[in-house]
Amino acid sequence: MELMVAIAVASLILAVIATASMTSALWFAALTNYVDMDVKSRNALDQMTLKIRQAGALTEFSPTHLKFVAPGQTNSFLVYHWDAPTGSLLEWNTADSTTNTLLTGCEQLTFSLYNASFAATTNLSQGKGLSVNWKCSRTVLGRKNTEDMQQALIVIRN
Fold this sequence. Notes:
Radius of gyration: 24 Å
């Protein structure tokens, strides 16, 4: 009788420890995923900010597409395009034909153009600020992790 009680208590303790271990492993995997998504978002924003501030005039604008004259070039362009079906933000430089995937797994991404007084505009010649908003997610161990909406305002220098 005592042996059966000891086995039952030990089984309960092992079940609690196993459940706690599984829960903490899932939580750790989700936290690691959030950190990785945040790092990739910051890197994408840093690259975009640097290149947009160095670029020439904005020649095309839509909520999912930007096209700038490449710095120091006349017939070369720097293009940012959000491909909704794949959820990828692409950067394309026509000067050297390189394409970089800045973000993946984006559920939504929007570019907005602002004038000098930070009022929304669609006039390219008045554009002085560029807002970019995105939301990315990934599935880790069968659970979907979505980062908070990321937003940044990039001042266009040229």
